[in-house]
Design brief:
Elements (H helix, E strand, L loop, with lengths): L17 H4 L4 E10 L4 E11 L2 E12 L1 H14 L6 E6 L2 H8 L2 H7 L13 H13 L1 E6 L7 H14 L8 H9 L5
Parallel strand pairs: 1-4, 4-5
Antiparallel strand pairs: 1-2, 2-3
């Protein structure tokens, strides 16, 4: 029989369910990214649900890619959690979900941020930013089909598109710097 102790070291009843006592808060997150032109103006949208609380986040960038916005939505959502949480995350971005669930990210790291075809992994700056968040939180990634009338996913899409059309678009410095450093004149 396993005996469970609380932080004040009093023996808890034997019928005590330790799994429910020690769990981190359970949060549900929906994310989406949008980009007009790819690359072009883009944005992300996030809906976070915790009990009866709801938080919506969005931001737009003047030049970026859809994949960067999909990934940034996940990062920003997880960064907004103030303590370790159990997260159920929904995204319509197979790029993000498969990278985690199918082990792409682990293999990219093992290969020194190279894909199986030896080409460099894109968006390494964002993947590296995500890694400590995946250590802090227990995240379950779920893919859902975009534009399939899932209310919260549709709201994320709306937030992302609206963010991409704002007048005060931020600069995606990592993307724009990488783009300008790769240009050559012939």
């Amino acid at each position: 029989m396993i005996k469970v102790y609380s932080s004040n070291f009093k023996l808890l009843p034997s019928n005590f369910k330790s799994s429910s006592f020690f769990l981190n808060p359970q949060v549900v997150i929906y994310t989406d990214g949008a980009c007009s032109g790819n690359p072009g103006p883009g944005g992300y949208g996030v809906v976070m649900l915790y009990g009866d609380r709801r938080l919506e986040l969005s931001e737009g960038y003047r030049t970026t890619t859809n994949n960067r916005m999909e990934l940034l939505a996940v990062i920003v959502a997880l960064e907004n959690l103030k303590r370790p949480c159990q997260v159920t995350l929904y995204s319509d971005a197979q790029y993000v979900v498969k990278a985690i669930n199918e082990g792409w990210l682990d293999r990219w790291i093992q290969r020194g941020w190279r894909k199986s075809n030896k080409k460099p992994v894109e968006n390494v700056d964002l993947w590296k930013r995500l890694l400590p968040l995946l250590e802090k939180h227990q995240v379950t990634f779920n893919w859902l089909k975009g534009h399939a009338n899932v209310q919260e996913n549709e709201r994320c899409d709306q937030l992302a598109v609206e963010a991409s059309t704002r007048c005060d678009l931020k600069i995606d410095k990592a993307f724009e710097n990488a783009s300008t450093s790769n240009t050559t004149l012939i």
